[in-house]
Amino acid sequence: MRQIIVSRRLKLGSSFIKIKNEIETDSRRYAGLKVTGDTLVYRTERIYPDRSEHPQRIPVLFLFSNPHPDSVACGLFLSEPYSRAFWQRLSEIDKDYLRLPRGAVNLECWDKSIPRLRQIMLKGDYESPFLFYFHCLYPIPTSKPEDLRGLFRSAPHIWGKIEKSSSRRLFKLIEDEQIKHVVVFNVGVFRTITKTKVKGWGKKEAIDQFLKTADKQKYWGVDLKGLHIYLSLHTRAKNWKDNKGQYYFTRFLDLIFARIKETIRR
Asked: What does the pLDDT look like over 174-214, one tens digit per residue?
């Protein structure tokens, strides 16, 4: 079976001293990162199910910025305390799009949910017309996405290499797995891969206004030579509710999955 957690190394050259000092100065922000000699050693995460076992399903890629150290340590995406509700929201989407096995998500007994969800997502052991992949554009874990760029502020040439290699790795995955639909959970990542200048949604009022508009094309359905890229809400907004008590996060995913199925029918 494919692994979720994998080890990686990055050559730092003459910049290793400054980067090592940055990591050691703030071990909480950069937990799990270690500089050995002139090399950054770390672990990262991805979920790549075996498509050959589900040839009839539509591959859909969930794309995030970079891993959180706590999730890497736990062995499953979005396992840090503030992010676990992502899995609850995912389990609440329209059952025509995803039906997880009963009891798969239990936030009160999260340690027991982790190994089960790992197996479910790797094996594609759920009812859905889709097969879900999880990938981080940048593989290096930090507490916040913005901390990653800060780590390399003293070495912009290395950051440039990370950006290029990350883009190559993403599009190789898309090509190898024949993925046509990508759901992005970070507006910065969306801008990077689509070369667009969307604002995203920082407040509930902006989300309400967006959902009332008839034309949502500029946010999802961006087409890059047959690759459809959709902007969902940031995972930090997963617990925001509308005035009817519905979760915006789940509503967005339902709209995006409906859009994917509509695109396929054409």
From this structure: 999 999 999 999 999 999 999 888 777 777 887 887 777 75
Q: Which two tokens stand for residue 98?
A: 């995803």
Q: Which residue has the tokens 């009963």?
A: 102
How many alpha carbons lie under 13 Å from residue 118 in its C-beta half-sphere?
Answer: 19
Does this model's pTM top 0.85?
yes
Residue located via tokens 């034309």: 215
- The string of DSSP letters for 204-258 reads HHHHHHHHH-S--TTTEEEEETTEEEEE---GGGTT-B-TTS-BHHHHHHHHHHH
Q: How far apart are CA 39 and CA 226, in angstroms?
A: 38
CA angle 32, 37, 39 (to 5 degrees): 55
Residue type, 53: E
Please give the Cα distance from 256 to 203 (Å, whole number): 20
How do the domains of the chain map onto residue ranges? Answer: 44-265
Determine the topology of domain 44-265 in CATH. Uracil-DNA Glycosylase, subunit E (3.40.470)
For residue range 19-29, what is the model confidence (pLDDT) as tens digits?
999 999 998 89
